[in-house]
Amino acid sequence: MLLKISKDRGDSDSCIRFAAEEYMRFNGLEINGPVEISRINGKPILENLPVFVSFSHTKGLKACAVSDKQVGVDVERMCGNRDFLALSKRFFGEGESTKRRYQFYKLWTAKEALKKLTEAPLTEVLKTTDYSKVRHFDFIAGIALSVAGCGKFFIVLFF
């Protein structure tokens, strides 16, 4: 896993192109022509590169994960005084109720990343308690970041 912090590149496609190009350079892989992006049900697909990508954004922050295998990413700013206990009881799986903001966002981003990885219905993913394919990162105060997948991945955070 490698994390890179970058200035915001504008729209989602510009961020995805930048992250994909950085991944390719870091791994010594050639890029033949401009990075072509299409979407299937909103999910970005890199047409001319042998890698997978996932994208997330929240309140002035974007995250892009690039991997050699299918990948899902979610990023959230941990803000607000919400009733996390009520929200977690309503949406999360058995035994996952929490009133702690940090724990709530850790679970929420893990579930969102899994949804992007598996493309399963959100209602199904919200009830899961299997996080064996998820890695959570809490190295920046106030930001929850989770990546789901089994490959080697490269994450770019855009501020």
CATH architecture: Alpha-Beta Complex
Number of structural domains: 1
Distance between the terminal alpha carbons, to the nearest Å?
Answer: 20 Å
Beta-strand content estimate: 25-35%
Unreliable stretches covering 5 or more consecutive residues = none
Provide the structure class: alpha+beta
Largest sheet: 4 strands, mixed
Q: If you compute it from the alpha carbons, what radius of gyration comes out, rounded to the nearest whole angstrom?
A: 16 Å
CATH fold field value: Ribosomal Protein L22, Chain A
- The overall strand count is 9
Percent of residues in helical segments? 25-40%
SS summary, helix count: 4
What can you tell me about this protein's structure?
The protein is 29% helix and 32% strand. By secondary structure, it is α+β, with helices and mostly antiparallel strands. It has one domain (2-158): Ribosomal Protein L22, Chain A (Alpha-Beta Complex), CATH 3.90.470. The chain has a four-stranded mixed sheet with strand order 1-9-5-4, with helices on one face. Strands 6-8-7 form a three-stranded antiparallel sheet.
